[in-house]
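Next up, sample data.

:::
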Amino acid sequence: MNCRCLAARRSARTITRLYESKLRPHGLRATQFSVLAALALKGPTPISDLAEFLALERTTLTRGARLLAHNGWVTAAPSEDARQRLLRLTRAGRRKLEDTFPAWKQAQAIVVRQGGKSHAEDHAVLMVR
């Protein structure tokens, strides 16, 4: 079957599994790392803007942010607009991001190295690591 949609979804799942395996020992999932990294880059950000930036549903991000807040890695930030809920990275969240960055960088290097190969080769190589 030569369905580009299926191939893209398979590749995305394979790549996500790789990042998850590298981040798991640090107590983070790939999406959680992405939220922390985005907040480090953007500063305090409305949930809807952050969801759009990360290509996540707002409700999905809201649920994920609760866990990040429970762990002390993000918190609500004051907003001039009461209708907006801003998230910001805490000091503990920045430390978690910094501690986890080398693991993310390892996963990134593997994906970049494998970027020019076919999906089947990517899948085989990534599953072995």
